[in-house]
Design brief:
- By secondary structure, the chain is an alpha+beta fold.
- Helices cover 32% and strands 23% of the residues.
- A six-stranded antiparallel sheet has the order 2-1-3-4-5-6.
Length: 180
């Protein structure tokens, strides 16, 4: 049974559904990319796929269905990979879930100015205040966005933070996948 609140917007529900799915897979997972499609349209145009996804009895008409895409390549920087994506018209939005290390704002002032790339990544990984976080970010074609953040140390459905501007850079990169 999903822990997704019914009062949430369709995009928030989709983000939380993806977060819940990723949580069920455990930590130390690769990035995962999802197409977001209009559930009612999917049922009407692809009834076989809708049945396969268990959506044939879905009553809500404003829902979004996340459909996981092929594996995100690990040997290519995420921003470069996202720059290669183009979505067909049937895709209403997209979402990405990815794990990263983050530092609290109090530690940002300690970052050595001369570090970048692999050296900066190592410095963050070795920092005693680092936190592992799973970010799920979704955008719609019209620019609407939503995010969910889950800390590894607080890995429960009630500790997931949501908001539209939690990961603005990733939201902008996902929005760019819909530009011509």
């Amino acid at each position: 049974m999903s822990n997704t609140p019914m009062a949430a917007s369709p995009l928030t529900r989709a983000v939380l559904e993806i977060d819940e799915y990723a949580s069920g897979l455990g930590w130390d997972q690769p990035a995962r990319l999802f197409a977001l499609v209009d559930t009612a349209r999917l049922r009407a145009q692809e009834p076989g796929l809708a049945a396969q996804l268990g959506l044939e009895d879905e009553q809500e008409t404003s829902a979004l269905t996340p459909i996981e895409q092929d594996e995100v390549p690990t040997g290519k920087p995420l921003d470069e990979f996202l720059g290669t994506i183009a979505w067909p018209d049937a895709v209403t939005g997209c979402a990405l879930t990815v794990e990263r290390l983050m530092l609290p704002p109090s530690a940002e002032a300690q970052v050595p100015q001369d570090l970048s790339g692999a050296a900066l990544t190592k410095w963050v990984a070795d920092h005693p205040e680092r936190q592992e976080v799973r970010m799920t970010v979704a955008v719609l074609r019209d620019g609407t966005r939503e995010s969910a953040l889950r800390l590894r140390e607080k890995d429960t459905p009630t500790e997931v933070l949501t908001g539209k501007d939690l990961v603005p850079g990733l939201a902008e990169a996902l929005t760019a996948t819909f530009e011509d």
